[in-house]
Amino acid sequence: MTTGIDIRRLSPSDDLHTLTALLHRAYAPLAAAGLNFSAATQDVANTAERVAAGDTFVALDAAGTLVGTVTLSRPRDPVAQAWAASHPWVCAPDIAHVNQFAVEPALQRSGLGGALMAHCEAAARGRGAARIVLDTAEPAEHLRQWYGRLGYRVIGVDQWPGKTYRSVVFEKPLPTSPLKAQLLTMARYNAWATARLYRSLEALSDADYRRDAGLFFKSIHGTLNHLRVAEHLLWQRRFAEGVSPMLKLDFEAEPDRVALKQRLLEGVAAWPALIAGWDDARLVATLDYTTSQGVPASLPFAATLAHVFNHGTHHRGQVTAAITALGHECPAIDLVWMLLAQAARPAPL
User: Fold this and answer.
1) What strands lie across the sheet with 54-60, from one edge to the other?
2) pTM > 0.85
3) Dihedral (CA of 52, 55, 56, 60) sign
4) Cβ-count burial of 211 within 10 angstroms (0-12 exposed, 13-18 middle, 19+ buried)?
5) Of 224, 217, 234, 231, whose CA–CA distance to 297 is shortest?
6) 7: which strand partners?
7) What domains appear along the chain, each with residue ranges and CATH number?
8) What would the pLDDT profile of 283-312 be if each residue is shown by its tens digit?
9) Where are the beta strands (DSSP E) in the chain?
10) pLDDT tens digits for range 220-249
């Protein structure tokens, strides 16, 4: 690769006008061939919107000039982003999606593009993704061959609205040990099920949300607060920080309904990156901690982490029963439904 190149995360001080201009230059030959890639003509507002959807990395030469960029997007929410429902491969909870990829034309074929992709793959592993996906224009044979040389395989074709071409969809697995892979699956399921549960909770009045529904922690609010305390303020800190806070399991960590939702969603989203950062030696070791009653304990690390996710499933089940009893419908949040969504593929070639 060209020497003197620094690849780092995009910072707030970086100029999106400069980044947009780079995209235009890099995609100009494709646009001239009649392939209307968004990056060839998008304005700065579009660039900012795409940057906000994930983690953007930039490559700078020795003089500090921007010479490359790529964005690693999170899985899209087909409910919040209706367009994504027609492209299920961008919604799968175990993916990271590469887009807005560009290299200064004079540096193409220098190895910089491969370095940017390797950086993306490392970042995707760090956030706990099991596979990385991307798409490119079917007529762009040179790009298709290049992705193939990087280890990406074709899984199907897609058609984005308004495009003059079909897109070929590529996928590359991000290998990990079977134990870590299973824990990552459970962590993704924990986040997926929590988010889906909250879609049903939006329809509940505050009175129904807070009334005593006969649950172990009485109300739906009480149960969700318990999840916040047990999963994140106790277990997550035991695993991530090696500390054992002394908290009662019925402590109301967050009285405000909206704030509690935000804290819970942040907490469940933090697990995949934590698991991705633990090696197998850590996973097969023990977790030494102090219980909320002040008693020292030592348990198998991986099995205890599995308990945390099982505990969340148990209490989400209680909440769904309460929602149903109040006359509202609940989404299917069994693990198999996430796996079915995860297995979604674009149309085959």
Assistant:
1) 6-9, 54-60, 66-73, 95-103, 131-137, 167-173, 153-158
2) no
3) positive
4) middle
5) 234
6) 59
7) 6-132 (3.40.630.30), 178-342 (1.20.120.450)
8) 999 999 999 889 999 999 999 999 999 999
9) 6-9, 54-60, 66-73, 95-103, 131-137, 153-158, 167-173, 286-290, 296-300
10) 999 999 999 999 999 999 999 999 999 999
